[in-house]
Amino acid sequence: MEIFGVPLQAMMSQLLLGLVNGSFYAMLSLGLAVIFGLLNVINFSHGALYMMGAFLAWMGLTYFNINYWVMLILAPLVVGLFGIIVERTMLRWLYKLDHLYGLLLTFGITLLLEGVFRSVYGVSGQPYSVPEQLAGATNLGFMILPNYRAWIVFASIAVCLATWFVIEKTKLGAYLRAGTENPKLVEAFGINVPLMVTLTYGFGVALAAFAGVLAAPVIQVSPLMGSNLIITVFAVVVIGGMGSIMGSIVTGLMLGIVEGFTRVFYPELSATVVFIIMAIVLLVRPAGLFGKEK
Q1: What is the domain extent for residue 185?
Q2: Does residue 219 sit within a domain?
Q3: Which residues contact 108 (CB under 8 A, 6 or more apart)?
Q4: C-alpha distances in angstroms, 173 versus 62, 162, 179, 255, 285?
Q5: What's the pTM value of the predicted model, to 2 decimals?
């Protein structure tokens, strides 16, 4: 069976590939949206922290024989702790300054982290095997579905929706949003706003590390893996709307699928289609698809 001259199996394979890429876009842009929306910081180090999560998973298995499932929890915790230290020692002094200062600081952190990992491991990628519980594939009749890629899509969507629910639908999320708009009023209710802000940043970067661990078995773990992805993720955030939680999730998945189908019908455009869409959205709706017009 063919659709527009393309075999159905090839079409579905590209749809799956687009969903996998879109899952990474959604999770990384979600972390960026959480940090920007609640802390007003443009976190350029997000790609480096994604890389750091993947490397921690690889190091845990290589040096300490810690399996994938443990590192899926441990790596985000370690990177989240690193983020907390960065926020308490450096970022907290920049909140009242122009966005450019936070961008420059996090860009410097990116260069530092990439430089350290590059000097130790070089630029060649390190292999990380798929956990045996998710090895193999399932024959759906119209396509062969690799089990691990199905797990990436499921885990990413589950984490993204859980994060959206906590921030948008719970009392904790209401405190977070109120704390960024009127911190003195929230502190009057006995809530430690600086601690809440610190934990929010730690959670945002932990999301990047979680995505890094998910990515480790499907791509080579490399010091440059984050820098190759972060520009596209920033484009996703702009399209969805800076600071929009649901916008990041929906736009990330949607653009991943669009990118996948572009590879089928017009491969030469697949590397730039996201940026073309970003330019069109900015012309029509500068605040993004889900952003609030001021």
Answers
A1: 2-284
A2: yes
A3: none
A4: 38, 12, 10, 27, 27
A5: 0.93
